[in-house]
Amino acid sequence: MAQSPAHGTDHHDHHHAAGHHDPQDIKLLGFWIFLVTDVILFATLFATFIVLRGGTDGFETGAELFNMTGVIAETFLLLTSSFTSGLAVLAMHQNKVKPMITWLVVTGLLGAGFLALELIEFVELVHEGATLQTSAYWSSFFTLVGTHGVHVTIGIGWMISIIIQILRRGLNSDTKGKVTVFSLYWHFLDAVWIFLLSIVYLMEVM
Asked: Is Transferase among the key words of this record (predicted)?
C-alpha cells in the first residue's frame, strides 16, 4: 500500500513526459485533418468537372483552346519545385540552415513561375472568349484549376513566413516541424496537379 504514492508520481511523470511532445503532435494532427478536408474539396471539384465537361453550351472546349506547351512548362516547374522542397527537408535534417533556406527560396521561385504561366494561360483563354460565365465546362475548369492556383499562392506565402521565422529564431523543433509540414503540403499540391494534368488537360486533348 505504501508504494501507491510513488506509483502515482511515476504515472504523473510519465504523463508529463508524454505531454512534452504534444504541441508538435497536435499541429501535425491538425495538418493531416486539414489535408483530408482539402482532398475532399479537390475530389468534389474534380467530380464536378467530370460531370460538367459535356456542358459546353455550343462553345469550344479545352481541346481546341489549350496551349499544351505552356501546360507542360507549368508541370515541369511544379515537379521540379517538389524535388527542391525535398532537398530543403534533407538539408534541414542535416542542420544545414543556409542550403535549406536556399532550396526553399528556389522552391518558391519555381512555384511563382508556375503561377505566372497559369495566369498567362487564363488571360489567353479569356481573350479567346472562355470565362467563368461562358459555359458549365469553363466555369468548372476555372474553379478547379484556380483553386489549385490559390493553394500554390498560399503555399508560397506560408513558406516566406517560415523562412523569416528561421532567420529570426534559427532551427528548432518548432521551425523544423513547420518545414516538414510545408513540404508535405507542397507534395500534396504536386499530386493534385498530376491529376489535373491527366483529367483536365491530357484526357481533353486526346
From this structure: no
Report the chain's C-alpha Rg in angstroms: 22
When divided into structural domains, the chain yields a total of 1
Residue 24 three-state SS? helix
The Cα 24–Cα 37 span in angstroms is: 20
Domain that holds residue 35: 25-205
What is the rounded CA–CA span in Å between residue 199 and residue 184?
23
Q: Can you tell me the distance from the alpha carbon of 197 to that of 113, in angstroms, rounded to the nearest whole number?
A: 17
pLDDT in tens, 27-71: 888 899 999 999 999 999 999 999 998 887 778 888 888 999 999
98 close to 153: Cβ distance less than 8 angstroms: no
Describe the crossing of helices 173-196 and 97-127 by its angle, rounded to 10 degrees. 30
CB 28 within 8 A of CB 181: yes
Domain of 180, CATH number, reads 1.20.120.80
Under 8 Å between Cβ of 75 and 189: no
Q: Per the domain annotation, does 9 fall within a domain? A: no
Let me know if residue 127 belongs to a domain: yes
* Spatial contact of 160 and 76, defined as CB atoms under 8 Å apart: no
Residue 180 lies in a domain: yes
pTM of the model: 0.85
Q: What is the DSSP letter of 197?
A: I
